[in-house]
């Protein structure tokens, strides 16, 4: 792989370098995803949102694998594209209010840290797939929890 491609992969894997934040890089990557979420929602297209998540997900698997070699360690903390994609999955197709956005963020960070089944097992997959899979699963869990919460408290999460 040439130098320019490796640099592009590291740029993507580190969430446009947010992964180099010295304290809680995963939280910084999740916060970046909130900004992306707002931008994607502004397009008014669920298809565009879904395609961006898909492209970032597939690109993230590849870039994370490259980043592991670049940093010479398994699942380096600077790699946060998994948090970006997982957070976007958490919010996909849910018209969340600001309260819902905050709840989704906090739930995602909790699930990313606790790693409920099968997240920890998925994390053991090889290369970039292992880096990405646990966060995508955590994102699916958060998405389901937000949907269930919106049934119990309509308007608390879903809305403006």
Properties at a glance:
single chain; 160 residues; mainly alpha; 7 helices; globular
Task: List strands and helices in order, with pairings.
Layout: H1 3-13, H2 25-42, H3 46-71, H4 81-91, H5 98-114, H6 119-123, H7 127-152
Helix pairs in contact: 1-3, 2-4, 2-5, 3-4, 3-7, 4-5, 4-7, 5-7
- What is the helix content? over 70%
Instruction: Tell me the β content.
Output: under 5%
The Cα radius of gyration reads: 15 Å
How far is the first residue's CA from the last residue's CA? 45 Å
The average pLDDT value, as a whole number, equals 92
| Total DSSP E strands | 0
Describe this structure in words.
- This protein has one domain.
- The protein contains 7 helices and no strands.
- The protein has helices spanning 3-13, 25-42, 46-71, 81-91, 98-114, 119-123, 127-152.
- The protein has 160 residues and is mostly helical.
The gist of it:
71% of the residues lie in helices and 0% in strands. It is mainly alpha-helical. The protein is globular, with a radius of gyration of 15 Å.
